[in-house]
Amino acid sequence: MTHRTDIRFVLNGRDVSVPSVAADQTLLDFLRLERRLTGTKEGCAEGDCGACTVLVGRLGDAGLTYVPVNACIRFLASVDGCHVVTVEHLSGPDGRLHPVQQAMIDHHGSQCGFCTPGFVMALYALWMQTPEPTEAQVETALQGNLCRCTGYEPIIRAAVAVSRYGTPASDHLNTERETMTARLAALKDGRRVVSGPEDNLSIIPSSVDDLAECLQTYPKATIVAGATDVGLWVTKFLRNIGPAIFTGHLEDLKSVKKQGSLLLIGAGASYTDCQELLSEHLPHLSSYWDRIAGWQVRNMGTVGGNIANGSPIGDTPPVLIALGAEITLRRGSESRTLPLADFFIDYGKQDRQPDEFVASIHVPLPGPNDLDAAYKISKRRDEDISSVAAGIHMTVTNGVVSNVRIAFGGMAATPKRASAAEAALNGQPWTRASFEAAAHALAEDFSPLTDWRASSDYRMLTAQNLLRRFFLENDTQTDNPVQLACA
Amino acid sequence: MKDNVSIIGAAHTNVNHDSAIKHVTGRADYTDDIALPEGALHAYLGVSDVAHAKLLGIDFTEVLATPGVVGVLTADDVPGANDISPTHLNDEPVFPTEAIQFHGQPMFAVVAETRDIARRAAELAKIEYETLPHALDPIAAQEAGYPHVTAPLKLERGDVAPAQAAAANRIKGRMSVGGQDHMYLEGHIAFAIPGEDNDVIVHCSTQHPSEAQHMVAHVLGVPSNAVVVNVRRMGGGFGGKESQMNLFCAVAAMAAKKWNRAVKIRPDRDQDMTATGKRHDFVIDYDVAFDNSGRIQAVEGSFAARCGFSADLSGPVTDRALFHADNAYFYPNVRLNSHPMKTNTVSNTAFRGFGGPQGVIAAERMIEEIAYATGQDPLDVRKVNFYGTKDRNVTPYHQEVEDSILDRLVGELEDTSEYRQRRQDIIEFNKTSPILKKGIALTPVKFGISFTATWYNQAGALVHVYNDGSIHLNHGGTEMGQGLNTKVAQVVAEAFQVDFSRIKITKTTTEKVPNTSATAASSGTDLNGMAALNAVEQIKARLVKFAAETWDVAPEEVVFHANQVHVGQEVLPFDAFIKQAYLARVQLSAAGFYKTPKIHWDRAKGQGRPFYYYAYGASCSEVTIDTLTGEYRVERTDVLHDVGRSLNPVLDKGQVEGAFIQGMGWLTTEELWWDDAGRLRTHAPSTYKIPLASDRPRIFNVNLADWSENRELTIKRSKAVGEPPFMLGISVFEALSMAVASVADYRECPRLDAPATPERVLMAVARLQEGS
Question: What is the per-residue pLDDT for B237?
């Protein structure tokens, strides 16, 4: 079968075929410059402000699902086979305003109006999913949207009131769901897509096996899953990413399931894809997960990508290392598995060959005597990069601590275990003194950096205090609250 | 006439923002959304990568060899004056010729067929330079002997030294107050279309179209009448687009004239944040003398500001810091000095409050110092020092405070917020909660309204009534989200007694209203509302004369009411009446004008009445901090704010809510961080953290003081609202301080610096814990 060379998708109501799509062409530039759909705005070009929010509907194993994403860092090639919905598609053919739009108007949710289409799209997605949200749910849905004028109050009031203006059942994305499903199904031709100029190819493998094959053919290719980091390589650093191999559509990489005492996370599963099962089996990660970026980024970014890019301040590695996670890498038809902690060799250096890809993550589920915690410290509570992130795991049997795994992000050049602190705790009694000793031992484990997120002193003191928090939170003799509750 | 019939959209009613439907549908056009003419080019700035250096030359070989590049613009291409300094000090070139003054300074522009080509090519230039030592902050600048960028100000009243000597208590301290990026969601952008002769039309996102016009003319070396500047709306301004747009307008216009093609320039967010100015950071040294009851006897203050490499608006900004260093408090003896320091950083500029917030927070710090020193509730210290209305009512700049409503306003908020009880509860809570600590604070704001540059206090408007009865409204103010156009149209609707929907609001353009002032200093509605009203009154006077003559009635018998005109016993629909007036050759268009009365200011003496009136407000915030990490949450905020007789309560409330959150952001998570090389490292929302929805107070009660009425004859007795509520955010900062103070039993003033990031909170906790 010959490769397909055009990118095909549905844009609002129309089928679109773009003959040649370079690896680094963004969805936002396509919408604004080539289609003059100027309702979608560029505020930051790094997925942090939400002014470019659009919905992307994808036909997966669970049917057609729409999620809000950041068009600014979403590559055009990655919407192949999808339904892209922009703010221009909201009002009905008769020009009547959408319930979300009317609610925003009636509650005075816009001032300068520049962020407004992005808010409307995020609230649209929320309303489709949760028609009558609580304020807390609205806040979580809006973590990826910045407004500098209103102070958010009227937007929240509008969001809570949307259901009074209409029900999602009568929304055209729902009434046309079957037709759209058929249209998207028709776009799936099972072919590999190779599009764009020779020096800047977009490659969309037809399957996971084809991905392995593509990597053998193009070992220097950039693997793009959610593009929430690679997107910035392009928009901020003007780096060439071609040839790029897009993996976000590969359903076989997205599965998240419990298997015995393990949680298996496909490397292509987005943060959102993981949320439900994680919350069920690893409840300590539930609110932590909500603090990873904003909703749009959680819908795009993948756990596999967060690991594979090797950042010392990624949110998932410390907590997964603490849980004792392993990862499987695949190269051609070969696979190998290693402890996640060993994957991170040095700053910018991971144990991955160029033609290898991260295929899955295996997370052992804690036992009845295990204590687990995940902590994130950042300048702003939500949608911020960690100053310090910590995963803590230990077994406490008869008042004695064992099996300690403590991993930190933001404290070293890689996500790293605190071996001295672990040693200070292993075999010790569950006492404040043991934790004090561990806190002091952290100074042997780390000499953190000073940068714009935090000073070295703050990072060290906070890391030590997080061990103290862990003790206080789990100690039966302490009943005072030791952490700000969420929301 | 029927009294129960009224128009829709009158003054003092809740009218939606006039662009609300366009906002939510994405059909509101911002400058970047305007369709480009054929052959349009794109410009992108090339910037320096060193904070201070002697410029030796720039090698453009690789830039010019890039396919799609049309050319470059440097200082050599400036046809007129290479100067865009808004205060005419000639200290701010479009592009520098001899020295690099800050990291990220625009050095040249690349012009190319696409923005992407221009942007990539700009990276290929090789700037040759010889590095010089740099000073980044005002203290380093003072130590290095750097000059002031503009003349400092001294305000003095009474006799400070004897009062200090006589006072029972005296505390000296230093406070660092960080700056703030505007983080308007729409960044800078300008788009120029060349015309015949010297003409050029510039579409841009500026708060000050007239200045952009004059600056473009100055740079092109052509008269102002050759340049038209248009602004339909901005995606936020907050002061960041008062003078900072000049550069982009100048570059777009120069390129458009050079290549005779339309040229658009839009920096990316990082360049927008590094290359354009911000709120000034200050280092404030204070010396406060007070008696044992906490009453202030004397204040001495030194305000050193990080102004950046040029003056820009640093003179009036640092002046306003001094004007507000009293906040709401009477200083019997006072001496305040500003030190507008030159630094090797981007030139700082206007930002909502314009230096005022930095003055107010210094006053509040002194109040805190007194409260901790005397063991009092800070609110009691505040109250005992409030300005009086009959005596104790003279400011450090010798203006009498005639209109203070703070006693009533603060008293009401104290009751409705249950401040006293909650403070007691919090003190009890803190005794039994070892890790989480709470704090509460109730802080007032008094903010002076008027441009301190007296000549800016003027405005023009142009009103046309077309012969079908539709009305076209234009004025010199610009719309950046604040609802100015809506409010001014309400004034016009009210005056003509027609529905709001009859009025077409149009873009601000220098072609229609000349010599306008910046839409700044919260003055937009005060000035432009009055100018529009003046235009309407002129047209109405002609209409009344026409009707009285035609129908032979007394002028008093011609009454505009509810979309109709009553002429004696006759009642005509407004449009039918207008048609008749047109046929009778009545002029249906007028240019309105307004200038603020009463104000005067002698800067050399430091005396006068710089402000027409004051706007007041107060807020009460409660916070919880985590003493293990410094993280915090705002539990509840109550606001009572004075907007006089509100022209549009719902829009005013929106301003108050938004300003509060922005002020809170300034003092909490928004941190500008330069590395040692002088490079700003918090330069995009990924690194620079403005508040999110989840940072709002968990309970947020915002009310307007609906009993207030401006005692001056402002537009419909309303008061300005843009800036004053920004300072309500200070209550969060003060509450954080109390929570920190609890770890040392409230015996020591925590002396938090701003912004109080979780790090600063934790480090202050650690410092106080060590000390106690």
Answer: 97
What region does B242 belong to: left with phi over 0, alpha with psi -120 to 50, or beta? alpha
Under the banding of pLDDT at 50, 70 and 90, the label for residue A295 is very high
Domain containing A103 — which CATH number?
Answer: 1.10.150.120
pLDDT digits (tens, 9 = 90+) for B691-748: 999 999 999 999 999 999 999 999 999 999 999 999 999 999 999 999 999 999 999 9
Inspect the interface and report whether the beta carbons of A238 and B686 lie closer than 8 Å: no
- Pairwise CA distance, residues B1 & B562, whole Å: 10
Asked if residues A11 and A76 have their Cβ atoms less than 8 Å apart, the reply is no
Count of domains for chain A: 4
Place of tokens 């910035």: A232
d(CA B404, CA B389): 6
Q: Suggest the residue from A48, A145, A149 to mutate for an interface test with chain B (most B CBs closer than 10 A).
A: A149
Question: What domains appear along chain B, each with residue ranges and CATH number?
Answer: 20-28+458-595 (3.30.365.10), 34-133+182-275 (3.30.365.10), 282-452+602-771 (3.30.365.10)
Residue B544 CB coordination number (10 Å): 20
**pLDDT tens digits, B544-580:** 999 999 999 999 999 999 999 999 999 999 999 999 9
B458-468 confidence digits (pLDDT tens): 999 999 999 99
- Is A90's CB within 8 Å of B685's CB? no
| DSSP assigned state of A251 | G
Q: Tell me whether residue A483 is in a domain.
A: no
Contact B235 A453 (CB under 8 A): no
Check: CB of residue B273 under 8 Å from CB of residue B683: yes
Structure tokens that stand for A448 in this block = 């953190």
Among A312, A332, A364, give the residue marking a domain's end: A364
Q: In whole angstroms, what is the distance from residue B757 CA to residue B764 CA?
A: 11
B364 is catalytic: no
- pLDDT bin (cut points 50, 70, 90) of residue B3 is low
- SS3 percent helix, strand, coil of chain A, rounded to 5, is 35, 25, 40
* Nearest-angstrom CA–CA distance, B234 and B247: 17
Separation in Å, CA B97 to CA B55, B87, B100, B138: 7, 20, 8, 25
Backbone angles phi, psi at A243, to 5 degrees: -70, 145
What single DSSP character describes residue B242?
T
Question: Which residues of chain B have a CB within 8 Å of the CB of A116?
Answer: 23-24, 26, 28
CB atoms within 10 A of CB B89: 16
- Cα B117 from Cα A389, distance rounded (Å): 39
Residues A392 and A307 in one domain: no
Domain limits at A421? 370-474
The percentage of residues in chain B with a pLDDT greater than 70, rounded to a whole number, is 99
Point out the catalytic residue in the list B723, B734, B759, B770. B723
B515 secondary structure, DSSP code: S
Closest CA to B207 of A294, A218, A112: A112
| ipTM higher than threshold 0.90 | yes
Structural domain includes residue A266: yes
Which one of B24, B695, B765 makes the best mutation probe of the A interface by having the most chain A beta carbons within 10 Å? B24
Please indicate whether, in this complex, the C-beta atoms of A380 and B684 are within 8 angstroms of each other: no
Cα torsion angle, B279, B336, B409, B402, sign: negative
Q: What is the CATH classification number for the domain harbouring A188?
A: 3.10.20.30
Q: Would you say residue B635 has pLDDT above 60? A: yes
Cα-based distances in Å from A294 to A272, A484, B16 = 11, 20, 30
Cβ neighbours of B20 in A, within 8 Å: 104-105, 108, 110, 113
The pLDDT mean for chain B works out to 97
Rounded to the nearest angstrom, the minimum Cα separation between B198 and chain A is 30
